[in-house]
Amino acid sequence: MSKKVCMVVAYHPFLDARIFKKEARSLQKKGYKVSMIVPRSNGNLFDIDGTPYKNSFRSKVFTHEGIKIVTYHSESVRNSLNAVLRDEEVWEKQGFNNSLIQLAMNEDADIYHTHEYLSLFAGVGIKRLMKKKHGKDVKLIYDSHELTPDPLEPRYSVERRKVLQEKLFIMLKEVDYLITVSDYIKSWYLSHMPKLPVEVIYNSPPLTKAYQPKTYQSNSLTVGYEGSMAGRKGSQEKIFGFSDICSKKLDFRFKIIGGSSFGESITVPGHLTPVIEQTGWVDYLSIPTHMKDIDIGWIDFDDVHQSLNNDYALPNKFFSYLNNGVPVVVNKCHALEHFIQKYKCGYVIDKQQAAAEDYANAFLYLHKNQDQLQEMSTNARKAMENEYSWEKVANRLFRVYEELLKEQE
Fold it and tell me: DSSP readout, 58-122?
């Protein structure tokens, strides 16, 4: 009989690349029976760019690509989950009595896999109530996609950060395994809770099968960006700035794979419309096709001094670039800098806050040194083939699950 896994989601879209396309699908293919408890917003499920599904996925419960999807209304559980900030003595009465927790308990899973601070709180409730009401010991995973609260994030007051962190450490005492996305974030958790079992599951894509090595023998240059530009006005201005500089010096293009979220748009200055291409959001599996004409990938964390998450991040787009042999140019941040220096797969600007001119200079330098760019491209792909493709990384996920299930025997 296959073991049952329940993914508990508080706000991510149900087709999230990490949660659904990588973890849930991989576990299902491995033989686990996987269900997901996922939120509706205003009655709708939503796509990865925030677009609501108005005419599809309308059933409360349905199966998609072999995964059972159980939906709930996020608005109905919000107040209950916010009880995490209250005293632990009132959690069961004020925080655990909601549809999210009840639907998850109905799945009667062996392992509950949570993905956000608030779904972790729900997971603690599930674990406690499954023991209290059904006498069943279930395992709880916290998949920490980022640090919440971010110790440097200015939007948190000192007092609020203190409370959030205090409650986090209470919840982590009930976590059987913590998963996170970079070795730096892992180290942060272990510095606070040295005995906490932690594994790093990188945000890696499956290895591109139809990969063709890049050749850098052209007078043109295409720089690319993959992902959301939502709320990143400063980064948009940098795109316009370095595109303007570079396009005056060579045949330059900038390609955005993804871009604006639902209800937003990126308005490109008229003189740059021939230079900047926007594909819009594309199917996850089609990303390698859109990467074929990109010579350099761009990442900009201009608020790294105010965000430990950005300083420690190894984002989806980073591995997506490497997967397609695309060297990466980035400003100075610990995790990316360490990785790029180790594998010689990109170029780090020696500034935490890099301006459009800094990026333009980096792009122009690499275009003039195409042998170096070629070597970076080769190294990027080798890193994925040897260590970081999802096929390699998924084995870490399977080992976590196998270890937890052995404890239940």
Answer: -SSEEEETTEEEEEEEHHHHHHHHGGGGS-GGGIIIIIS-SHHHHHHHHT--SEEEE-SHHHHHH
